[in-house]
Design a protein that fits this description.
single chain, 265 residues, mainly beta, seven-stranded antiparallel sheet, 3 helices, 13 strands, 12% helix, disordered C terminus, periplasm, signal, FlaA, bacterial flagellum, Flagellar filament outer layer protein FlaA
């Protein structure tokens, strides 16, 4: 009996090994790394950056400002010596310790051209990893990235603690159970970046803190499947330039019910 059980287990294992390459090749993958924001000045993007603090933020804070410079680990890879390399700096203070937080938010021109409003940056493809260079000053603060999934829910992913000195590359893997793309054809609601959030530890000092960001980038799968009829995905039914059938000017005129009765039908 035991030998028979071992034989069945071995056969199942062999079948799994043989089937794995077929399953692995059932979907193509096209990984790509791209820079979401280099923080080299707001003119390089369609958005700018601002910050907002929680209840006990000190008046006049947070302050957002660009500074010249970059991490040394990035500097050795730059070929343009005259490039305008900058980083984004944020300074804030709170009036008391506790569960305080600051959100660093992208802003873009509001509809109608009336000022600016919060802007959620859309990601390309299915994102696997998010990373960024962050300058820390030894404070026990937590850095999170806020993401909105394709169904509208906001998720906070921890990028790390800022209790170190100088530049460090912080990253977070996006959970596979976080829905990034809709399964319905033509639904273009992808995952979006909402904000960075810095949380203070309840016992950490909050009288003066500043941090710097550089080169926000993501690792994403940009594979786009091809299928018969892909050109109809996202079709605009409000466009009058297309051909109509059964309505509008191209529809065949039918006699009204009253006219049919008068004709003896």
């Amino acid at each position: 009996m035991r030998q028979k059980a071992f034989a069945c287990a071995g056969f199942a294992l062999l079948l799994g090994i043989l089937a794995f390459p077929v399953l692995a090749q059932s979907r193509s993958i096209n990984y790509e790394t791209y820079i979401v924001d280099s923080f080299d000045g707001s003119e390089d993007t369609d958005w700018s950056w601002t910050a907002a603090g929680s209840k006990f933020i000190t008046d006049g804070y947070p302050v957002v400002k660009y500074f010249d410079g970059m991490p040394n680990a990035m500097r050795v890879m730059q070929t343009d010596e005259d490039g305008n390399y900058q980083v984004l700096g944020i300074q804030f203070k709170f009036n008391r310790q506790g569960d305080n937080w600051v959100d660093i938010i992208p802003m873009a021109a509001a509809e109608g051209g009336d000022g600016e409003s919060p802007y959620e940056i859309p990601f390309r493809g299915v994102v696997s990893r998010i990373d960024m260079w962050v300058w820390g000053a030894g404070y026990y603060y937590q850095l999170e990235v806020l993401l909105r999934d394709c169904y509208g829910r906001v998720h906070a992913l921890p990028m790390g603690t800022l209790n170190y000195e100088g530049w460090r590359n912080l990253s977070v893997n996006v959970p596979t159970n976080l829905p990034q793309t809709s399964r319905y054809l033509g639904d273009e609601h992808n995952m979006r970046f909402v904000a960075f959030r810095i949380r203070t530890s309840p016992t950490e000092r909050v009288d003066d803190f500043y941090v710097f960001f550089d080169q926000l980038k993501v690792l994403t799968d940009t594979y786009s499947p091809s299928y018969d009829g892909f050109e109809f995905a996202g079709a605009d039914f409000s466009d009058d330039s297309g051909s109509d059938s059964g309505s509008g000017e191209n529809a065949e005129t039918q006699p009204a019910p009253a006219e049919e009765e008068e004709a003896g039908i």
